[in-house]
Amino acid sequence: MSEDPDRPARASRSDGSFDPVGFFNLLASYGHGGELGIAYLAHGEDWVEVEMPWRPELVGVSDTGLLASGAIVSLIDLAAGVSIWIKRGMFRPMATLDLRIDYMRPALKGETVIVRCRCLKITRSIAFVEGIAHVGDIQDPIARSAMTFMTTRS
Length: 154
Hints:
Largest sheet: 6 strands, antiparallel
């Protein structure tokens, strides 16, 4: 039986625990996150930090060079999911139930967006995550977010 349909399982360590570095290495070659150029920066027991460099194809307003909000939403959503897998210690399918983003300023031409998401709590079926997006100064955020996800049982 091929393991291809279960690509996220390859982001697991030999003991079955979730490996965020392995996941982002895999992501670089596949899917939406790879196309956006999302890259791993760091993680802890319940958080992950990732970045997305500015590229012309991610621009939402061509006259200004501002990054499209959809690219930022994708970056935040992906980081939130990874923070849950890190806290759980394993990959499990889930769905975004609610994703609220408060934009505070645009991402300007040439700016690399950094997102840090932290999984606050996981219940039997719901995970709660907070996030912040910035371009190097966390005190001058692009956006703040609050998210809930429906998870499967472990």
